[in-house]
Every structure is written in structure tokens, then in C-alpha cells.
Amino acid sequence: MSEVMDQLYRIIDSRLKEMPEGSYTASLAKRGKGYVARKVGEEAVEVVVASLTEGKERVISETADLIYHLLVLMALEGVKPEEVYEELRRRMK
Ligand SMILES: N=c1c2ncn([C@@H]3O[C@H](COP(=O)(O)OP(=O)(O)OP(=O)(O)O)[C@@H](O)[C@H]3O)c2ncn1[C@@H]1O[C@H](COP(=O)(O)O)[C@@H](O)[C@H]1O
Predict the structure, then answer these.
(1) Average pLDDT across the chain, whole number
(2) Region 2-91: CATH code
């Protein structure tokens, strides 16, 4: 899981630096951090709805959307996945 997230984060980070045509990440960044933050909220609600009414396949798909948007928000905030892993390790009992 962390390997895939690290790889996706690196791709996202490079899209934010290069802002290439046709990149969904670049189009999100152009709309601003507030827009990305709202997308994270929307995607989280979609995970909840999928879990309550739509079944496992939809939960997987919506969770992937949520993680992607969360990684974009983290990159815009300058938060690296390793810093979150470190916090999780610190809490681990
Ligand atoms: N993992 C993802 C990923 N997950 C979800 N999404 C996009 O997130 C959007 C979620 O759908 P929504 O209906 O909520 O949003 P929408 O209506 O399409 O768009 P909005 O106008 O609401 O923002 C879809 O357009 C998906 O394509 C992703 N877009 C890109 N990636 C990966 O991110 C990397 C960079 O992608 P680009 O920036 O497109 O080059 C690549 O490795 C991609 O595979």
C-alpha cells in the first residue's frame, strides 16, 4: 500500500511542478487548494455512501478516489507520505 502511495505521490508532485496539458492533477491545482479540500470531503462522503448502500467493489473504487485526492491535497500542503507514516508509527501500540 505505502509503495503504491509513494509512487502516486511522486507522480502527483511532478504534475504540480510541471503542470502539463491534459493532467487532471494540474486542473485540480488550477482551481486552488480550497477546491481540492472540498473534493476530499466529497470523496469521503462517497466512500461512506458506497459502504452503506453499494457494496465492496464501489467501496474499493471510491477509496481509491479518496486516496488520490488526499495525496493531491497533501502535496499542495507540502506534507510528504513519510511524515504521515511517521505519525502513524508514533501512535502504534
Ligand atoms: N489515481 C488517479 C485518480 N483517481 C481518480 N482520479 C480522477 O478523479 C476524478 C474523480 O471523479 P469525480 O466525478 O469526483 O470528478 P470529475 O467530475 O471528473 O471532476 P471535477 O470537475 O468534479 O473535479 C476523475 O476524473 C478521475 O479520473 C484520478 N486522476 C488521476 N490519477 C492518477 O494520478 C496521476 C496523475 O494523473 P494526471 O494528473 O491526470 O496526469 C496518474 O498516475 C493517474 O493515474
Answers:
(1) 97
(2) 1.10.287.1080
